[in-house]
């Protein structure tokens, strides 16, 4: 027969049960926000935009303009996401974008056929990304920050060297169509279709290939992945190669939109790419995040900028608000990890 609890013991037990219920509730709320929080933020941004500018925001022209203007951000963020999954970072994506587009612009002045001009940004981006990956793994640098920071300056300097530091106009119509054209008979941007296809392919790569699963595993624990037989160095090189290639693709989109190459393209855009990933649910600690979340993060930033532009708010406030959102999201990620560790 169980012994009766003293009043003090009963109170202690009741307090412990209440604390356990509270912890479970917090964990459920954080789990729900972790899965759907960024979609909630997108929904709030859309509602605010409709309330603030009901006659402008919902127009077909404005919606497609938002998607067209943020297409290259979506590509930069997707590449950055692959690297962040490994608990890494690539600060050179903005400079890689500029170098890629300038390479095509310079070649266009020598009469190079347009198919090569379209292919060149992918090749340049892949080359820069591979150098980042090899530098990180072969030089045994303590953090990707160092290698990619150096590459940021190298690529930006190379961009100015090959262009003479001046813009180059006159890209052919085939290149312009990729960045600014619409699907025949519709208002749907070609760049939007390219984004949908690219995101779908990256999703399939990360979720349904061995290398994609290895990328997640490295972010979870490099040592555990290595013990499990994962070739960590090879996987990291592939991750940075893909990041560079997507930055090159972003350069092609920008070149198509403007019909030219300009050496200061992409300055600071690596920060927007990182911001979109973090807002979209990726973790700086690696091994966590989704492709859909990254696109939602891009939409949050794009909708915020569109709302402030339509409301004639200074661009500086965009930076302030994005910074506030990033601090909030990263703080939530740290809190989530603490709750998970204590449960």
How is the topology of this model organized?
Elements: H1 7-52, H2 60-69, H3 71-85, H4 93-108, H5 114-138, H6 144-163, E1 168-169, H7 173-180, H8 190-208, H9 210-220, H10 222-227, H11 232-258, E2 260-261, H12 269-279, H13 291-310, H14 315-342
What does this entry look like structurally?
There is one protein chain. The chain has 343 residues and is mainly alpha-helical. The protein has a domain at 74-291. 76% of the residues lie in helices and 1% in strands. The longest helix has 46 residues, at 7-52. 41% of the residues are buried. The model has no long low-confidence stretch (mean pLDDT 86).
Contiguous runs where pLDDT drops below 50 for at least 5 residues: none
Radius of gyration: 23 Å
What's the overall geometry? globular
How many angstroms separate the termini?
A: 32 Å
Main beta sheet, described? 2 strands, antiparallel
Which class best fits the helix and strand makeup?
mainly alpha
SS element count, helices? 14
Biggest sheet: strands side by side, in what order?
1-2
| Helical percentage | over 70%
Average pLDDT rating: 86
Total beta strand runs: 2
- Spell out the helices and strands N to C: HHHHHHEHHHHHEHHH
Strand content: under 5%
Quaternary status of these chains?
single chain
Q: How would you summarize what this structure contains?
A:
The chain has 14 helices and two strands; from the N terminus they run H-H-H-H-H-H-E-H-H-H-H-H-E-H-H-H. The chain has helices at residues 7-52, 60-69, 71-85, 93-108, 114-138, 144-163, 173-180, 190-208, 210-220, 222-227, 232-258, 269-279, 291-310, 315-342, and strands at 168-169, 260-261.
């Amino acid at each position: 027969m169980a012994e009766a609890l003293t009043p003090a013991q009963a109170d202690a037990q009741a307090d412990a049960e209440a604390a356990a219920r509270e912890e479970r509730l917090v964990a459920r709320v954080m789990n729900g926000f972790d899965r759907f929080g960024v979609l909630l933020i997108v929904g709030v941004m859309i509602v605010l935009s409709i309330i603030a500018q009901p006659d402008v925001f919902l127009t077909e022209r404005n919606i497609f303009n938002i998607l067209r203007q943020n297409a290259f951000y979506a590509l930069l963020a997707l590449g950055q996401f692959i690297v962040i999954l490994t608990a890494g970072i690539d600060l050179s994506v903005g400079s890689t974008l500029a170098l890629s587009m300038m390479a095509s612009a310079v070649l266009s002045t020598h009469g190079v056929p347009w198919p090569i001009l379209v292919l060149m940004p992918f090749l340049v981006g892949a080359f820069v990304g591979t150098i980042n990956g090899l530098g990180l793994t072969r030089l045994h640098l303590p953090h990707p920050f160092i290698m990619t920071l150096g590459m940021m300056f190298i690529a930006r300097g190379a961009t100015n060297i090959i262009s003479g530091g001046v813009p180059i106009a006159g890209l052919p119509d085939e290149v312009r169509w990729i960045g600014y054209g619409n699907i025949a008979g519709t208002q749907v941007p070609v760049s939007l279709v390219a984004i949908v296809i690219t995101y779908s392919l990256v999703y399939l790569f990360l979720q349904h290939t061995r290398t994609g699963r290895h990328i997640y595993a490295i972010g979870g624990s490099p040592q555990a992945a290595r013990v499990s037989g994962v070739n960590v160095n090879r996987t990291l090189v592939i991750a940075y190669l893909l990041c560079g290639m997507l930055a090159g693709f972003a350069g092609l989109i920008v070149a198509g939109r403007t019909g030219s190459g300009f050496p200061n393209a992409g300055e600071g855009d690596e920060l927007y790419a990182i911001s979109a990933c973090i807002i979209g649910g990726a973790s700086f600690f690696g091994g966590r995040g989704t492709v859909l979340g990254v696109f939602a993060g891009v939409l949050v930033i794009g909708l915020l900028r569109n709302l402030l532009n339509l409301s004639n708010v200074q661009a500086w406030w965009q930076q302030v608000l994005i910074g506030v959102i990033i601090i909030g999201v990263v703080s939530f990620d740290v809190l989530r990890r603490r709750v998970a560790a204590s449960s």
